[in-house]
Amino acid sequence: MQDADNDNSETPTAEGSEPPRKMLSPAAKRALAEAEERRKNQKPLELPPEIGGRGGAEPARFGDYEINGRAIDF
Description:
Shape: elongated
Low-confidence stretches: none
Region (Disordered): 1-62
InterPro entries: SDHF4 (IPR012875)
Structural class: mainly alpha
Family: Belongs to the SDHAF4 family.
Protein name: DUF1674 domain-containing protein
């Protein structure tokens, strides 16, 4: 009889605990720091207001596919 490859005889890890991180090279650490700095300095996207759009909540996010009593389908 063969042993199962996926027997869970090992000690389970705690829920929500992070796996051990890989050791990063100095260049990788520097690149991550530069990317984080760029994200901090990035301005939020300023979009123009929507003209003639449907009022209320976004239907794709909230499942509201009805306008003026008519069900609409995308």
